[in-house]
Design a protein that fits this description.
- The complex is a heterodimer of chains A (600) and B (285).
- Chain A is of the alpha/beta class.
- Chain A has two domains: 275 residues, ABC transporter involved in vitamin B12 uptake, BtuC (Orthogonal Bundle), CATH 1.10.3470; 204 residues, P-loop containing nucleotide triphosphate hydrolases (Rossmann fold), CATH 3.40.50.
- Chain A is built from 24 helices and twelve strands.
- In chain A, strands 8-9-10-5-11-12 form a six-stranded mixed β-sheet, with helices on both faces.
- In chain A, helix 3 runs antiparallel to helix 4, helix 3 crosses helix 10 and helix 4 packs antiparallel against helix 10.
- The two termini of chain A are 47 Å apart.
- Chain B has a single domain, classed as ABC transporter involved in vitamin B12 uptake, BtuC, CATH 1.10.3470.
- In chain B, helix 2 crosses helix 10.
- The chains are: A alpha/beta (600), B mainly alpha (285).
- Chains A and B meet through helix 5, helix 11 and helix 13 of A and helix 4, helix 10 and helix 12 of B.
Chain lengths: 600, 285
């Protein structure tokens, strides 16, 4: 694919850092951690082991808080559950005693189950509800640990599981926990860098667009809750061994706060930031011993300062690349010739999308009032009309956001389920939005790759362990995304943060994201709004080239020139009804249209 | 037994309902759910005990000072934790900023007051058994608050302005209502209501810093059940929660009653995400 190489814009942009450069901070931390035992100071071993165990929990929590944006503030509850599960099973005061490692595994299982239970409300409800359920859960778990004396020992407590040699020395146990922490870093970084991680961020920042790309939020979140819960449970088991004796007092809400704030100090959507945050917060009370009593107050004050002053956290402070200025006077230069490779073997459109007698009313307003519309493969169909005539509403009905009260919506004769936007992408229906919906903190490339989420075949587990199929898919997706960006004229900006793009560039980025699906139907909602005349011309050529590959295009637009230039057929709406339909030539001379809308 | 379940259930239920109303009062003018609601309830108990028992003030001045202090704290909440993040409401930063402030309040209470539950004084000394004042006082406070709010919202200009802002913020501002001052006033009002909840329930819950997160959670359940911003729903939900919790307490014991409440909460939320009396979600696209 020589297309990308010959990309015209002669822009000098900062290259993406190489894999080694991104690994370097982690390797540095690991090297430092490995040197620590040579100090011979057992107290440091305790602190460093604690930091490792906290990171086992925080690394999973980071996917929930930092990536998915779900505010889980009570994760100490799962730590406590894991600690008690491991201790009770190892002590054998309920069932026959288990070996310590088996008990640790059970702690992970229990953690995973409760991670999902606590997370259930997050699947359907607003953020605050999830924060509340995790908080309530944290309160309840401590109460139960206190009251259920037969099993937990109540306020007196219970001994933690003992590890066999050579893990029974401070430094031996430290190295074991360090290994666990390193493993967790690798695992969660794998998820973060996979289509699952990109979908999490998309759900956080652009939920509607994520749905249009076919991201199934409940399924995605449950998988992440399972992983984070398991890690927190295992961290609990490790914590119980480190403490050697656990009581409900060990699991105060302060600890939960530490985990939560470590992620926020670190910054959203980063692995390194929260890792540094965890180390920092674990060391803080040791360094500032006289302030130990006020540590919770300090954490809370820190949280307030971060939220109000540096919402980006450490990760934003370390992101030097995004502070370099982008070149001025960039122009989007779409390369339609890349489309043949990109869309060459796209999903064959099996037939037309047909709307028959669709009626949709908001209260007393009939936004669509008995509309018939055919969208055929390989055709550009223009939808015009004055503001409030039902253009975007029609698009939202087709893409499944609205459920019409009457009428039918079919693709190749089979009904398209109403009100289920996430089911459109698997049918090969892609769209863009009137206001670009994107993940500002992710790169343009990552934003575009979200578009092909439904085509990912490798499972969450394969992504977790970077198995071959996952790596192969990831390479294919990236190559396709670069091709889509080349086609949309943004090849040079692939590695730039999306929130640094100009408005016109974002419009083309949304088209690239939609093209990732290799769609049978593409619906564009005012793609020319805010574009310069020259850019509109290039957009028109791009749309024609897309249709030439067999994709059916629905174009909602106000620019009459663009519509008449490139459309095969045009429907004019007025007050939710069809005013006229036909070829551009027929519409241009249609009396009512001219008087009502074109003003000629 | 039934009588004591009813008495204690309605009493704690009334406290939960009042905390729910505290959430709603702040939510109405700012669209923000603030974690300080439960802390205000906690402070009602702690400050009441401080003013009356420790400083020896008479009951009425003690009550007035408690309400005033919490109203002031409400205004501080608005300035420090709510106003700066209102611009980006969709990022939910208010969850973090109000949580931070709530924890600062709670921790200060733990260090400067006591980490152990402290006694709360008898206020009137009327009634005994299930008619003891610690049972009927919260219910009376709840009834008085509802009547007061009804009067405020229906009969006074300020109250109608609150309703206007809650209904449509932009339209209210376009009409020239001083949105920011009204918001601060509603936070002060919420502070007083929360303090009243803790004060009236003081003999039941004692003056204890850890009541904060507890009231946060149990006061939120009526809001979630009744629908955000719906005071009638909060009262019904609060009383139902109190009765359910106390009944479970008597029947299956303390541990399982909190498990039962938590399970019920999650199940109801999954079945009726908008609450039992809530309105449908807004358009997203």
């Amino acid at each position: 694919m020589g297309v990308t190489d010959t990309a015209a814009p002669a822009l000098k942009l900062p290259a993406a850092p190489s894999a080694l450069a991104r690994l370097l901070p982690f390797l540095g931390l690991l090297a430092g951690a490995l040197l620590l035992p040579f100090s011979g100071n057992d107290y440091w071993a305790l602190i460093a082991t604690r930091a490792c165990i906290y990171w086992v929990l925080v690394s999973g929590l980071n996917l929930i808080v930092g990536y998915a944006g779900q505010l889980a503030i009570g994760y100490v509850a799962i730590l406590a559950l894991g600690a008690y599960t491991a201790s009770v099973l190892a002590a054998g005061n309920v069932l026959p005693a288990l070996p310590s490692f088996a008990a640790l595994g059970c702690a992970g299982l229990v953690g995973a189950v409760f991670g999902v239970v606590v997370g259930l409300p997050a699947l359907r409800l607003r953020t605050f509800y999830f924060a509340m359920t995790t908080l309530g859960f944290a309160t309840i778990v401590t109460q139960i640990a206190l009251a259920w004396q037969d099993v937990t020992g109540g306020g007196i407590g219970i001994p933690g599981p003992e590890m066999p040699a050579p893990l029974d020395t401070p430094w031996g146990y430290y190295l074991f926990c360090l290994g666990a922490a390193a493993l967790c870093t690798w695992l969660t970084a794998n998820i973060a860098g996979s289509r699952f991680g990109r979908a999490l961020v998309a759900v956080r920042d652009a939920e509607v667009a994520a749905e249009a790309c076919g991201v199934a939020k409940p399924r995605l979140l449950v998988q992440v809750f399972l992983l984070a819960g398991a890690l927190a449970g295992i961290a609990g088991g490790l914590f119980a061994t480190l403490q050697s004796y656990i009581t409900p007092d060990a699991f105060t809400f302060d600890l939960s706060l530490l985990f939560f704030i470590a992620v926020l100090i670190g910054g959203r959507g980063s692995i390194l930031g929260p890792l540094l945050g965890t180390i920092l917060l674990t060391l803080l009370p040791e360094v500032a011993a006289p302030l130990a009593a006020w540590s919770t107050f300090l954490y809370a004050a820190l949280l307030l300062v971060i939220v109000l002053a540096i919402p980006g956290g450490i990760a934003a402070l370390l992101d030097f690349r995004s502070r370099r200025a982008l070149p001025e006077g960039r122009a989007v230069q779409p390369r339609p010739e890349a489309l043949a490779t990109l869309l060459g073997h796209h999903r064959e459109a099996r037939g037309a999308i047909e709307l028959r007698g669709v009626v949709l009313a908001f209260g007393a307003v009939r936004a669509i009032d008995g509309l018939d519309l055919d969208l055929r493969p390989g055709e550009v169909h223009g939808l015009i009309g004055p503001n409030g005539s039902g253009k975007t509403t029609t698009l939202n009905v087709i893409s499944g956001y609205y459920r019409p009260q009457q009428g039918s919506l079919t693709l190749a004769g089979a009904p398209l389920p109403a009100g289920r936007p996430a089911l459109r992408a698997p049918q090969g229906i892609a769209r863009t939005f009137q206001t670009p919906r994107l993940v500002g903190e992710a790169t343009v490339l990552q934003n575009v790759m979200v578009g092909a989420t439904v085509e990912g075949r490798s499972t969450f587990l394969e992504a977790l362990f970077q198995l071959p199929r996952q790596r192969r898919e990831e390479r294919e997706m990236e190559a396709r995304a670069r091709l889509a960006l080349a086609a949309a004229g943004l090849a040079g900006l692939a590695d730039v943060r999306a929130d640094r793009l100009q408005h016109s560039e974002l419009r083309f980025m949304e088209i690239a994201r939609a093209l990732m699906l290799r769609p049978a139907f593409l619906m564009l909602d005012e793609p020319a709004a805010g574009l310069a005349t020259e850019e509109i011309k290039r957009l028109g050529a791009l749309i024609r080239a897309i249709a030439a590959q067999g994709t059916g295009v629905l174009l909602v637009e106000h620019h009459a020139d663009l519509i008449f230039d490139i459309c095969d057929r045009v429907t004019v709406l007025n007050l939710g009804r069809e005013l006229a339909a036909g070829t551009p030539a027929e519409i241009r001379t249609h009396k009512e249209v001219v008087s009502a809308y074109l003003g000629g | 037994m039934l009588a004591s379940i009813l008495a204690s259930g309605l009493a704690v239920g009334a406290v939960y309902a009042l905390i729910g109303i505290t959430y709603n009062t702040m939510f109405a003018t700012s669209r923000v759910m603030s974690f300080t609601a439960g802390q205000l309830g906690m402070l009602g108990g702690v400050l009441g005990s401080l003013f009356i028992l420790r400083l020896g003030l008479p009951v009425l001045p003690g009550l007035v000072l408690t309400l005033a202090a919490c109203a002031l704290l409400g205004v501080v909440t608005e300035i420090v934790a709510v106003r700066p993040v209102l611009k980006s409401l969709d990022q939910h930063l208010y969850v973090l900023s109000t949580l931070a402030l709530a924890l600062m309040i709670q921790h200060t209470a733990a260090l400067e007051w006591s980490t152990e539950p402290q006694p709360f004084p008898r206020l009137i000394g009327l009634g005994e058994g299930i008619w003891e004042e610690k049972y009927w006082l919260p219910v009376a406070a709840c009834a008085a608050t509802i009547l007061g709010l009804e009067y405020l919202y229906r009969r006074t200009l300020v109250g109608r302005a609150f309703v206007a802002i809650a209904e449509d913020n932009y339209a209210a501002r376009a009409l020239g209502l001083p949105e920011r001052n009204l918001r601060m006033a509603s936070y002060a009002l919420a502070g007083a209501i929360g303090a009243l909840a803790g004060f009236a329930g003081g003999q039941l819950l004692l003056a204890f810093f850890a009541n904060g997160p507890l009231l946060n959670f149990y006061g939120f359940i009526p809001v979630a059940l009744g629908g955000l911003g719906n005071n009638r729903g909060a009262v019904i939900g609060g009383l139902a929660l109190g009765l359910f919790q106390q009944a479970a307490n008597f029947l299956v014991g303390g541990i399982f009653s909190s498990v039962a409440v938590f399970t019920l909460f999650i199940l109801v939320l999954l079945a009726a995400p908008q609450g039992l009396f809530g309105a449908a979600a807004a358009r997203r696209v």
